[in-house]
C-alpha cells in the first residue's frame, strides 16, 4: 500500500487523545444540530432581551406577523437587524479564526494576525480624515477595501520561494498591522474630529445597524464562506507540512492563497458591519477543538457556529450588565473573552494543535 493509499484510508484522521488517555474526541452531525439549535435560541433571546423586555410568546407572534404594537416595532426595526448581523458576523469571525489557525499552524492566530482588522480600521480613519465620511454604511465600503488591500499586501510580502509559509505570513502580518496601527494613532491624536467619529466605530458594536448594512456585507461574507468550504478539506494535510501535503496531492500555495482571500472577505465583511471585535476568532476554534478534536473538517463549521453563539450572548450581556445603559459588544468580548480564554488554556491545554 502506498503512502497516498494509507492516507486516504485514514479518513477521518485520528484525533489526539487527551492527557487522561480517554477516547479521542471526534465531530458529529448530532453536535452540529445541537449548535444550530443553540444559535436559534440565542437569536430568540436577542429579540426578547433589552431595555424593554418582551415575552417569548409575544416575540414569536410578532416576528412572523407584525401587528403594529410597540413590541413589533422594537423587534422589526431594532432587534431583528441587530440579531441577524450579530449571527452572521460571529459566523464569519469563527470561520476566519479557524482558517487562520489551521493554515498558519499557529494556535494563537486570529483574523487580526494578517493585519486585516488594522487595515480595515486604517481605511475607515483615512475616509473620515480626508473625505469627511460619517455614515456607518460608507464606513463598510472603506473597511472592505482596506481589508482587501492589506490581505493582498501581506500575501505578496510573505510569498517567498515555494509560497508563503506560516512564519512569513505571521511576520508580514505583524509588520503590516504595526504600520497601520502607527498611522491610525498619528492621525487620531492630531485630529480631534476624526478621533470623535472613529472611537464610536472602533469599539465594535451592532447597535443602530440596519438591514442595509447586512445586505451590503452579505455578498462578501457569502463568497468567503464558499472559499472556506473549498479550503477546509486540505487543512488536515497542511498540518503535516508543505512538503508532505504536496506529496499527497495538495497545492499548498494555492490553498493558502484561497485561505487568505477567505479570511480577507470574512473579516473585512465583519469589520465593515460591526467594527473590530477581538478575541472571538481566537477563542472559537479552541473551543471547537476541545469539543471535536483536531480534525478541521469539523473544527471549521463548529468554530463558525460557536462564534455566532458567543457574539450574540456577549451582546445580550452588554444590554443587561450596566442597568439602563448599554455596553458595546466589542468591550464585552474583551472583558469576558480574555479571562475565559486564560481559563480554557490552563484547564484544558487548548493551546496545543
Automatic annotation (TrEMBL):
Pfam families xref list: FecCD (PF01032)
This protein's GO CC annotations: plasma membrane
GO BP, sorted A to Z: siderophore-iron import into cell
Start and end residues of each stretch annotated as Disordered: 1-22
TM annotation in the entry: 29-49, 83-100, 112-133, 139-160, 167-193, 213-237, 257-279, 299-317, 329-348
Family membership: Belongs to the binding-protein-dependent transport system permease family. FecCD subfamily.
Protein name, per record: Iron complex transport system permease protein
Organism in which the protein naturally occurs: Flexivirga oryzae
Amino acid at each position: 500500500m502506498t503512502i497516498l493509499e494509507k492516507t486516504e484510508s485514514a479518513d477521518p484522521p485520528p484525533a489526539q487523545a487527551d492527557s487522561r488517555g480517554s477516547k479521542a474526541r471526534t465531530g458529529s452531525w448530532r453536535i452540529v444540530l445541537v449548535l444550530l439549535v443553540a444559535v436559534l435560541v440565542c437569536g430568540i433571546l436577542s429579540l426578547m432581551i433589552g431595555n424593554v423586555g418582551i415575552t417569548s410568546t409575544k416575540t414569536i407572534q410578532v416576528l412572523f406577523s407584525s401587528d403594529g404594537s410597540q413590541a413589533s416595532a422594537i423587534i422589526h426595526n431594532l432587534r431583528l437587524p441587530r440579531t441577524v448581523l450579530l449571527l452572521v458576523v460571529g459566523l464569519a469571525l469563527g470561520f476566519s479564526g479557524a482558517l487562520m489557525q489551521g493554515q498558519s499552524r499557529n494556535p494563537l492566530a486570529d483574523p487580526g494576525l494578517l493585519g486585516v482588522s488594522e487595515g480595515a480600521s486604517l481605511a475607515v480613519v483615512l475616509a473620515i480624515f480626508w473625505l469627511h465620511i460619517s455614515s456607518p454604511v460608507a464606513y463598510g465600503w472603506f473597511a472592505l477595501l482596506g481589508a482587501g488591500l492589506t490581505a493582498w499586501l501581506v500575501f505578496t510580502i510573505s510569498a517567498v520561494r515555494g509560497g508563503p509559509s506560516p512564519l512569513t505570513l505571521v511576520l508580514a502580518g505583524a509588520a503590516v498591522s504595526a504600520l497601520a496601527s502607527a498611522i491610525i494613532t498619528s492621525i487620531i491624536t492630531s485630529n480631534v474630529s476624526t478621533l470623535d467619529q472613529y472611537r464610536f466605530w472602533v469599539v465594535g458594536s451592532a447597535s443602530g445597524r440596519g438591514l442595509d448594512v447586512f445586505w451590503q456585507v452579505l455578498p462578501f461574507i457569502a463568497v468567503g464562506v464558499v472559499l472556506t468550504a473549498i479550503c477546509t478539506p486540505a487543512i488536515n494535510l497542511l498540518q503535516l507540512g508543505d512538503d508532505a501535503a504536496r506529496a499527497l496531492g495538495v497545492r499548498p500555495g494555492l490553498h493558502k492563497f484561497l485561505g487568505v482571500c477567505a479570511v480577507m472577505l470574512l473579516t473585512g465583511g465583519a469589520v465593515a458591519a460591526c467594527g473590530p471585535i477581538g478575541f472571538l476568532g481566537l477563542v472559537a476554534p479552541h473551543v471547537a477543538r476541545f469539543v471535536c478534536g483536531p480534525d478541521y473538517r469539523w473544527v471549521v463549521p463548529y468554530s463558525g457556529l460557536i462564534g455566532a453563539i458567543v457574539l450574540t450572548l456577549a451582546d445580550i450581556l452588554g444590554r443587561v450588565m450596566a442597568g439602563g445603559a448599554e455596553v458595546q459588544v466589542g468591550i464585552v468580548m474583551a472583558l469576558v473573552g480574555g479571562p475565559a480564554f486564560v481559563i480554557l488554556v490552563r484547564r484544558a491545554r487548548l493551546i496545543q494543535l
